[in-house]
Amino acid sequence: xxxxxxxxxxxxxxxxxxxxxxxxxxxxxxxxxxxxxxxxxxxxxxxxxxxxxxxxxxxxxxxxxxxxxxxxxxxxxxxxxxxxxxxxxxxxxxxxxxxxxxxxxxxxxxxxxxxxxxxxxxxxxxxxxxxxxxxxxxxxxxxxxxxxxxxxxxxxxxxxxxxxxxxxxxxxxxxxxxxxxxxxxxxxxxxxxxxxxxxxxxxxxxxxxxxxxxxxxxxxxxxxxxxxxxxxxxxxxxxxxxxxxxxxxxxxxxxxxxxxxxxxxxxxxxxxxxxxxxxxxxxxxxxxxxxxxxxxxxxxxxxxxxxxxxxxxxxxxxxxxxxxxxxxxxxxxxxxxxxxxxxxxxxxxxxxxxxxxxxxxxxxxxxxxxxxxxxxxxxxxxxxxxxxxxxxxxxxxxxxxxxxxxxxxxxxxxxxxxxxxxxxxxxxxxxxxxxxxxxxxxxxxxxxxxxxxxxxxxxxxxxxxxxxxxxxxxxxxxxxxxxxxxxxxxxxxxxxxxxxxxxxxxxxxxxxxxxxxxxxxxxxxxxxx
Length: 529
Fold this sequence. Notes:
- This protein is an alpha/beta fold.
- It has three domains: 1-15 and 29-89 and 276-311 and 322-348, Alkaline Phosphatase, subunit A (3-Layer(aba) Sandwich); 105-208, 2-Layer Sandwich (Alpha-Beta Plaits); 399-528, Cytidine Deaminase, domain 2 (3-Layer(aba) Sandwich), CATH 3.40.140.10.
- 30% of the residues lie in helices and 21% in strands.
- It contains 17 helices and 19 strands.
- It has helices spanning 31-35, 44-49, 80-87, 105-115, 127-141, 165-178, 217-223, 234-237, 252-262, 277-283, 288-308, 360-368, 382-385, 399-409, 450-460, 487-496, 516-519, and strands at 4-10, 67-71, 119-124, 144-148, 153-159, 187-194, 200-201, 206-209, 227-231, 245-247, 269-275, 314-318, 337-342, 351-355, 420-428, 433-437, 466-475, 502-507, 510-515.
- The strands form three sheets. It has an eight-stranded mixed β-sheet with strand order 10-9-11-1-12-13-2-14, sandwiched between helices. Strands 3, 4, 5, 6, 7 and 8 form a six-stranded mixed β-sheet that branches. A five-stranded mixed β-sheet has the order 16-15-17-18-19, with helices on both faces.
- Strand 18 (502-507) and strand 19 form a beta hairpin.
- Helix 9 (252-262) packs parallel to helix 11.
- The longest helix has 21 residues, at 288-308.
- It is elongated and about 100 Å long.
- It starts with a strand and ends in a 10-residue tail after the last helix.
């Protein structure tokens, strides 16, 4: 069966300043904190999964349905490229160059020579303000508007009627060729606009990124034969390297619509999604209300996504940096990012605290697909977040086969007093099955249930980790449609299994699965001692 993983990057949705935020003048930045109390913010699905249970966020639920973490950035930067590269396993120890005073004369002169056009502006500027202030002069003269920001970017704005989009892309390619070595900015960005003053930016933006200097998660997955599908600007961020399918988007809604369609496909690998509106339309424009409303819209689509997930799918929701819309700055902010993970085999309620690198996401994805990490950064948290059933060998018995073993185990029951026969088949995490039946005694107290027989047999043979148990029972000559474990057996399960241990009840033709946390809520465990 195909394995599928989805990573959805909520571009710029940071969850609080990093300890070194002062080095970037980002003290006090908290993107989620800036929008969560706005009247337009309503994200019940994210809350249910555990977004607000993340360390330092606050306001979480008592029973989150996903696993969560707060991720620190090890790379020296706070921009899209370094953030995504680190998510994909590539930490950038050296910051990419920025130009608070504009680009040096030798860069601009060479760019003008090769394009045959003069340059306007050449200073840090807001994208909407720059076309307001220089757009008319550009239309009149044909000179290109070149500007930057606090990020490592070389941006070229041009009116689509003056410089056709494909020609603008050609100019960006020239700039990308010039900006190498000491001037190797993270991205050259085409910023086309249209209309009359006041001008309007179009959706034909295109990023020309540096090629990652070494392999990332995408390279390793593709080499191993897995699909690497991109939605949004992922293709641009990695300069197309090891991306097997490109899906450009014009807005968040389109990005999620494409992602929902991806769920209907039998691909085998990773679908990597970037939703850029949070950053481009709301963070950079200090639009708290717009940001809050966009999160609400995403949460609605997330609800549809969760309903469509297959049993073996995993989803990771994260971000690439911050862009607090409530601060005076219109630039990115140096923040922690969220990690919310869910899926049928993902443990519920696991809080990993604060992780030391975004790259832990890539290490986890690679382990999920069984691909060696090979020179990428990060430490996997897969074993901490996936239930034991996920790690079962490929030749492990199916749930139906396990139930059939439980029914067969009933034949060995010794029940001369109650005549109620129960069989159990316990599956250890390494794929071995231990069967048990109930054994009665005339004095009643020594009587032992089928479930405990199976557990104690397995434990006596050195097993310590278990995935699931099938239980079948009923009066002699019949099979009950629902034979639940007694309270003592449930407590034994709580002693040796985690909350995501699977309990299968019923018959081979009609059975249901339950997590141990459903079978024994508010369980008393070792933690209490």
